[in-house]
Automatic annotation (TrEMBL):
One of its GO terms (cellular component) is cytosolic large ribosomal subunit. GO terms for molecular function: rRNA binding; structural constituent of ribosome. This is 50S ribosomal protein L3. GO terms for biological process: translation. NCBIfam families: L3_bact. It comes from marine sediment metagenome. Belongs to the universal ribosomal protein uL3 family. InterPro entries: Ribosomal_L3_dom_3_arc_sf, Ribosomal_uL3, Ribosomal_uL3_bac/org-type, Ribosomal_uL3_CS, Transl_B-barrel_sf. Transmembrane segments: none annotated. Residues 131-171 are annotated as: Disordered.
Amino acid sequence: MSKVILGRKVAMTQIFDENVLIPITIVEAGPCVIVERKVKKKNGYNAIQLGFLEVKENRVNKPESGHFRKSEVRPQKYLREIRVKDIGNLKIRDEIRVDVFKQGDLVDVVGISKGKGFAGVVKRYGFKGGPASHGAGGWRRRPGSIGASADPSRVFKGKKMPGKMGAERKT
């Protein structure tokens, strides 16, 4: 079975290693509880549903509350389904703790980046922008030209333009 655990970012700090500053992210990882098992015979694929961070009963909606009651598990704030090749001897209500990992193990950390909302090209892509004075005529933070005129009569796909920034899945 693959080693999987849910966690959340708690804080950032830093350490010095041979006079080099290294930024460190502190993650609260586990314990996670198995809320549901999905097997190939019944569901068409193997997966486990993990719950992380216990919450009060009134913090989950009625369908989720019924789901947790059916599994006889206390309500969890985060609920994620992870596909696995082999479920092995994992059972509902089993706890997965951080000790499944050993020192030196390589891990893939996946999370959602901070949402920045609608951003212009200066913030989103680091464009320099135009001059602030000397008759610039008000294009200080604008992108400039976005393409030619009659030929090709369109803006090419992938052109860096203002838009929503952040809130993306990052590995």
